[in-house]
Amino acid sequence: MLAMIWPVRILACFGVAACCFAQDVSRMDQVVQSYVSEKKFMGSVLVARGDETLFSKGYGSANLEWNIPNSPNTKFRLGSVTKQFTAAAILLLDERGKLKIDDLVRKFVPDAPAAWDKITLYHLLTHTSGIPNFTNFPDYRSQEPFPATPEQLVARFRDKPLDFQPGEKWSYSNSGYVLLGYVLEKASGESYQAFLQKNIFDPLGMKDSGYDSNSAVIKSRASGYAPSDNGGFPLNAGFIHMSIPFSAGALYSTTEDLLKWERGLFGGKVLSLASLAKMTTPFKEDYACGVSVRTIKGHKVIDHGGGIEGFTTFLAYYPESKTTVISLSNIGGPAPQEMTPLLAAIAQGETVELPSERKVITVAPEVLKGYVGTYQMAPQMNMMVRLTDGQLTAQLSGQGSLPLFAKSESVFFPKLVNAEIEFGKDYLVLHQGGHDQKALRTSETVIEKKEVAVPISVLQRYVGIYELHPGFELVVTLEGNQLITQATGQGKIPLFAESETRFFPKVMDAEIEFFTDANGAVSHLVLHQGSTEMKGTRK
After folding, report:
1. What is the pTM of this model?
2. Which of 195, 337, 473, 478 has the most crowded Cβ, counting Cβ within 10 A?
3. Per-residue exposure over 108-140, b if at least 16 CB sit within 10 Å of its own CB, e if not
4. CATH number of this structure's domain 456-538, picked from the four choices 2.40.128.50, 2.30.30.370, 1.25.40.10, 2.40.30.10
5. pLDDT band per the 50, 70, 90 thresholds, residue 231
């Protein structure tokens, strides 16, 4: 088409495009810097469209002790972004006749429990197997630091009851993807690491990608950090042995290598068109095989995030515009997922609004009162909306309460998180990171925990140090008549009694329950937070 335009028009178009391109790059940098300045992001970001890289830059430090900057060549742990590589590897084996994605798991695990009789590889790929997620087990944190073979990992969940019948529901399960890695090794006769290296990384020229190791020296690998509780200097992240995430989350890569992956995957260099279609066709809850496939503001997007100690990642591909956004962070938090749709919008010629640019308006108290209640986001996961002294707040199960500010009479936002809550009649929609999650109101009230008085002699029994997992402890002290808890690297939180053994903090939706041994001595506690439980043994 350009050949049909007069040369003057061509020059004019190139001039405008260059101006727009510069503005786009500047705006992308502003988006990322808004998270960097609030100490929510440290890492590398890349945005590409077609064959052109629009934006590629590192932020903050790959290693804070040595002040080594992040760059496009810095290697980051991917966490669950690993799952799309595992899914593609399974589909490759399907193409080669080594297995079929409709095969029963029992074909590769002959001694599988009877509960697995109807589970197929496709159920594992799409998180619809019903196998419970082993990273949610109460003892998971205590086992993270120690190596395990694929067989030992499978043994952790193989005899657990299914959460539901195969294919009936969707529930994210790292267990399913660990089992896929186990099957891959059985079907291919190679280790998971070797298979990916030979069949994906080497053919695509991904020289800066691989299976992470706690012992190997890996050049340009970032150190992982956790945000401090008070917004100060980040903390070193907890330790995880990299055999534990296995095929569900153990890979590392760079932004530039992941761009090669996206171009190779969607350019026909990895899978056949038929296999790629299988991989990217959703089954339940917008989830396909190792990736989510959704439509956001009219744009189809194929994406997945990852989170592992000290790292959060997000990788998104918009097939209609061939736009790729890659965000890799070596500090925990939601920044990569939140930034991705903003960067994609800019790349596709749209305008975006940063959290700091949102205007607050005043909404009548009677309107605010109409939004109060309990909204079910998912099983065992509620959003509690309260109105206290004229301030609307929202609290997700297991998390702290956040003030909400009005953008309009029905749209509100927390200043501490890049998200919006839109209220309708007896429902709300949470807009966050490109996801829209609707929740129906199940009650027009919020059930509040009632505080009871407990003798100080009982409180004194709970004072001590409780190890939740190696390197992470919960210290319980008594200041006057007030029980206080403090987790490693975090601030002090007062606890209030719901009973003589069960306590709760008022700043977040969680509970701590104390237990005694046969002799009546306090032996351990269990932290109940959201849908997870964590045991802490008294030292």
Report:
1. 0.79
2. 337
3. bbeebeebbebbbbbbbbbbbbbbbbbbebeeb
4. 2.40.128.50
5. low
